[in-house]
Amino acid sequence: MPGREASVAAAVPPGAPLVEVRGVSKRYGPVLANDQVDLTLRGGEVHALLGENGAGKSTLSKIIYGFTRPDAGAVRVAGEPAALRSPRDARALGIGMVFQNFMLIPAMTVLENIALFLTDLPAVVRREAVAARIRAFGERFGLHVDPSALVRQLSVGDQQKVEILKLLLARARVLILDEPTKVLAPHEVEALFRVFAALKAEGYAILFITHKLREVLACADRITVMRQGRVAGGFGPGEADAGALVRLMFGEAGPVGDEAPAGPEARPAAAGPILELLGASARAVGSETALTGLDLCVRAGEIVGVAGVSGSGQKELGDLILGLRPLSGGSKRLCGEDASSWSIARMREAGVAFVPEDPLVMAAVPGMSVRENLYLGTGRRYRKGAGVRWRALEAAMAESFRALAFPVPRLDPPIGALSGGNLQRVVIAREMAHRPRLIVALYPTRGLDVRSAASVRDLLRRARDGGGGVLLISEDLDELAELADRLFVLYAGAFRGCFPRGGWQTGAVGRLMTGEREADHG
Amino acid sequence: MAETGRLSALGSAPPVRAALRYGAITAVALAAFAMVLLLAGKDPLRAYADTFSYTLANAYGFSELLVRMTPLLLTAVAVALPSRLGLINVGGEGQLYMGAWLASAGALMFPGLPRWQLLPLVALLGFIGGAVWAAIPGVLRAARLVNETIATLLLNYVAPLIVSYFIFGPWRDVRGSAYPQSSAFSEAARLPSFFDTRVHGGLLIALAALLAYWLIMEKTRWGVDMRAIGGNPEAARRLGLPVAAWIVIALAIGGGFAGLAGMGEAMGIHGRLRQGLSPGYGFTGFLIAWLAGGRPLGILFMAFLFAIITSAGDTLQITQGLPYSAINLLLAMILFIVLARRPRKAGR
Q1: CA distance B326 to A466
Q2: A14-38, pLDDT tens digit by residue?
Q3: Interior CA angle at B263 toward B259 and B269, to 5°?
Q4: Which of A116, A512, B2, B70 is the most exposed place for a label (fewest CB within 10 A)?
Q5: How far apart are CA A99 and CA B129, in angstroms?
Q6: CATH number for the domain including B308?
Q7: Residues 208-227 of B with CB under 8 A from A
Q8: Cα separation of A512 and A501, whole Å?
């Protein structure tokens, strides 16, 4: 039956508007999240919606998906005025959305997850028929997933494919993807863009929400830039360039650290080692990755990068260094001392800081005040008897915020009320307050907007220049290329290659990341 | 980013609204229980009037409320404190019995000590008895072997058996009655009582425990650590907090408070160790802590309310000829009404 869906997708000729948003406004309390927004989605086009966090991208997409009702303005679908009171209405009109958090049931199979989403199935589902449709769509658009696999066994990239397949089988013609590349490794992003191309060729309209310029330039036909709830500007095919996009996203003020040099820099002569791993190994529990025989050295005044596709052992490596995971072999030394069996508290006390991917999960307690969160993890420094020397703590933290050129937030509200970028700033200010000797950064810019990400990178650079050692674990090769003085490639829990700055090409590193070949250590 | 979504999980109801809410719950439950009374052929207004005049409007009745409140406050704190770390202690009843048992052991072993030595000793032993009993599930949980809810619950069935063994065996009072009970403690081991009533020094201990709970949680760095563990265990671990140690400590302190409740019953009320020392104070304490959301003033209010309700059981038995267990219906109704609302975890 695949032909039937194809006919639906082809019902509106390519180039004709499938969705027209006209003068949509939406207010949340004092915030005007959308202000007189216009947007047109055409079949056969990838339309990128670009903007900083809080620019109104999510609100607009939720309005198109019927999740949120606008205060003013209208949405037309295939030329007809559409009453989008709920996502059900939007789906009936052929609009589907893939959220940042996938809406899948891990314990069920791909087929069951997709069948749950389809409203037109008979009471007794013919599994083979659904499976055949899944395979047919997979073949057509490069979305290969085994229908009988359990969702919890799938990689994040494959789960995203299931989400897209769900929409396609439910006959969506307009696909909205909210930050779909945030969870993907570089080669998965490329695969996703190939899927976009295949969908485009069959007349689907794609709304691709992101804040990454490079991706927009790589795959979008049309670009709409949002800033502070308004459409700041738009570009047709081939009209956009990075400079113009940045100016539109940020207005006159460019992102922090934009002009920072990215090339080779003068390094102080080889300083003493801060962190050394000598044949360090760790066992795996459950679905974790075992680490085998890792040799690594981070010197003072050096950023050491670790590249790898997701699930290669990055989190395990970070945990091993931080002292959360016992070594099963080899040793770990911090500033010359054997730290193999040190607890995380002792590692932190000895000057190890941790900048995580998602501070709300890994480094902050959402329900507690900013002040209390600043205290957590400072060890013995601000203890006095049974209490805390809050004034001394506040003074030290204010100083840290000032040194980092971050605005000092209000200390009383719960930290969970802060935006993602501000939250990361609080965590960084806390971690940097006591001049750490080693900073372990685990995907520190993931999920941050361009400006916040730039300020985090700038911070790592400054910490390095101040004589600290930085271990940067990242899946973003551009970021590693910009920052890392040396780059290790991690694959299946072991280092497959080590490159000095400027001594590596993306292609070679990418092949090592996917385990295609061993490298000559250089 | 869904920044608005995070806010909704935060903040607690202001005190006035909380009081109104408790009041409304009580009113609805009383109305529903009135139906039960009508079905049983009793006059609900009369029953409520009797309850009022025998408890709140009567000096003796009021003193009995305070007597009941004493163990309820302590067992409620025993639940509330670990709940701030996300731990569910259902073992207040067993911890109460073990507190009473160890305190009794002290009182029986050193009958000749002067009061100023013996009373602190039995209080300390009462605390230790409950603390050790709660530390067992704490260790099991910290080692990730057994869920603390299961372990504390099951230990409830063990503790009374230990007490029974001693009062049927080594400690049995052979000279006294045929009841299985220990011989009477020396006068020095008895908690002082006030104004010729059964209200005893345990009430002061209970109020002090409630105050200590609040001070520890809100004013000390230990409270910050414990709340951090409850708020985000993953972050707490990554920030170097000794999570496993805190799990054991928090459960032990909670168990210690429940143990003090048992000590109070043995030393303040019965003057000897008995079976049936507690008519389920440990379980009622759990309900109180849970309904109060772990808030100290809420615990005070709910403990008072539950003291009235359990006293009402006695009153109804005497004046209306209803079985005492009828009052369990009222307790169940309150629970039911609370559960019918959005569930709210204690201490969150």
Answers
A1: 74
A2: 567 889 999 999 887 767 888 899 9
A3: 140
A4: B2
A5: 53
A6: 1.10.3470
A7: 219-222, 224-225, 227
A8: 17
- Chain B residue numbers touching A28 (CB-CB < 8 A): 4
Return the CATH superfamily for domain A2-250.
P-loop containing nucleotide triphosphate hydrolases (3.40.50.300)
pLDDT tens-digit series, residues A52-95: 766 788 889 989 998 888 998 889 888 888 888 888 889 889 99
Q: What percentage of chain A exceeds 90 in pLDDT?
A: 16
| pLDDT (tens digit per residue) in A221-243 | 999 998 888 888 888 877 878 77
Q: Which of A207, A243, A250, A190 is nearest to A96 (CA)?
A: A207
Query: Is the per-residue pLDDT at A469 higher than 50?
Result: yes
Domain that includes residue B106, residue range = 17-340
Fold for the domain defined by A298-327+341-351+437-522: Rossmann fold (3.40.50)
Q: For B172, phi and psi rounded to 5 degrees?
A: -60, 135
Inform me whether the pLDDT recorded for B343 exceeds 70.
no
Are B9 and A366 in contact (CB < 8 Å)?
yes
The confidence band for A520, taking pLDDT boundaries of 50, 70 and 90, is very low
pLDDT at B98: 95
Contact A367 B231 (CB under 8 A): yes
Backbone angles phi, psi at B342, to 5 degrees: -60, 125
Q: Is B233 on the interface with A (CB under 8 A)?
A: no
Q: Which position has the token pair 């006035």?
A: B16
Interface test with B, best of A365, A434, A442 (most B CBs within 10 A): A365
| Per-residue pLDDT at B342 exceeds 60 | no
Give the per-residue pLDDT at A413. Answer: 87
Residues of each domain in chain A carrying CATH 3.40.50.300: 2-250, 298-327+341-351+437-522
**In contact, A387 and B220? CB cutoff 8 Å:** yes
B135 lies in some domain: yes
In a domain, B253, yes or no: yes
What confidence score (pLDDT) does residue A403 get? 84
* Count of A-B CB contacts under 8 Å: 99
Going by pLDDT thresholds of 50, 70 and 90, the confidence category of residue A517 is: low
DSSP 8-state class, residue A502? T
Write the DSSP string, B77-105.
HHHHHHHTTT-----HHHHHHHHHHHHHH
Distance from CA of B218 to the nearest CA of A (A): 10
Query: Which pLDDT belongs to residue B52?
Result: 84
Q: Does the distance separating the beta carbons of A377 and B239 come in below 8 Å?
A: yes
Contacts of A262 (CB under 8 A, 6+ apart): A481, A482
Please give the model's pTM, rounded to 2 decimal places: 0.72
**Mean pLDDT, residues B90-108 taken together:** 93
Q: Is residue B132 situated within a structural domain? A: yes
Question: Which helix (H) or strand (E) is A7 found in, with range?
Answer: helix A2-9
Measured CA to CA, the distance from residue A174 to residue B226 in angstroms comes to 48
Contacts of B2-10 with CB under 8 Å at 24 or more apart are B2/A58, B3/A54, B3/A417, B3/A419, B3/A420, B4/A28, B6/A360, B6/A366, B6/A416, B6/A417, B7/A416, B7/A417, B9/A366, B9/A367, B9/A416, B10/A366, B10/A367, B10/A414, B10/A416, B10/A417
pLDDT of res. A207 = 93
Query: Taking a C-beta distance cutoff of 8 angstroms, is the pair B113, B188 a contact?
Result: yes
- Across the interface, whether the CB atoms of A387 and B221 are under 8 A apart is answered yes
Residue A10 pLDDT class (50, 70, 90 cuts): very low
Determine the residue of chain B that is closest to A31 in CA distance.
B4
* Residues in a beta bridge with A298: A275
Contact A417 B3 (CB under 8 A): yes
Q: How many domains is chain B built from?
A: 1
User: What DSSP character marks residue B269?
Assistant: I
Alpha-carbon distance of A348 to B239, in angstroms, equals: 8
